[in-house]
């Protein structure tokens, strides 16, 4: 029974977080427990636990006497998130390249292949699979750093990546061939075990993505 309840809580957490990231729950909107109970078919205790967890990660704001709200967005917050992502992800990437074995290489090749196929679809003007595109993008970046050897680093990076993704979904405009080439550069440098070149390509990728997003914000 406890396992079942834990599964319900995890599912509710994933669904609410997904709806915040993809904008179905708008920035600044109030999260009324009665409405959430019907929408997510979860108990009040599960919802409170979920919202408190999301508040600890920065996706929800808990205000005294007023309840829960979806965390608002700003250009300053986006810039800070992008800068922190560069610091964490570049460090993790260098560690991963140093530690990665043949299984790491195989997973990276597979992740890049899936992402590249989806990018070709996006470049053709078909954005019907935008959630799959961002999932493959996440899987590629996660594959790059997966051998860093630090669970804490991977956990922090995952939260930052989701926060960055939320902004991308709010101002979704695909960068096209430029982003494809950036991913290719990271991929090739990682396979060649060139830590500095891979980190440089990653930094440029995030910074150009930030500049693009700020223009559309």
Overview of the molecule:
With 217 residues, the protein is mainly alpha-helical. It contains nine helices and three strands, in the order αβααββαααααα. It has helices at residues 2-21, 33-40, 44-57, 75-99, 102-123, 130-145, 151-170, 177-191, 195-216, and strands at 30-31, 60-63, 67-70. It has a three-stranded antiparallel β-sheet with strand order 1-3-2. The protein is globular, with a radius of gyration of 18 Å. Mean pLDDT is 91; it is low at 1-5.
Task: Name the quaternary structure.
Answer: single chain
Number of strands: 3
Strand content: under 5%
Q: Helix content range of the residues, please?
A: over 70%
Terminus-to-terminus distance: 46 Å
Question: What is the helix tally?
Answer: 9
Q: Tell me, briefly, the overall form.
A: globular
Roughly what is the average pLDDT, rounded to an integer?
91
Order of helices and strands: HEHHEEHHHHHH
Q: What would you report as the Rg, rounded to the nearest angstrom?
A: 18 Å
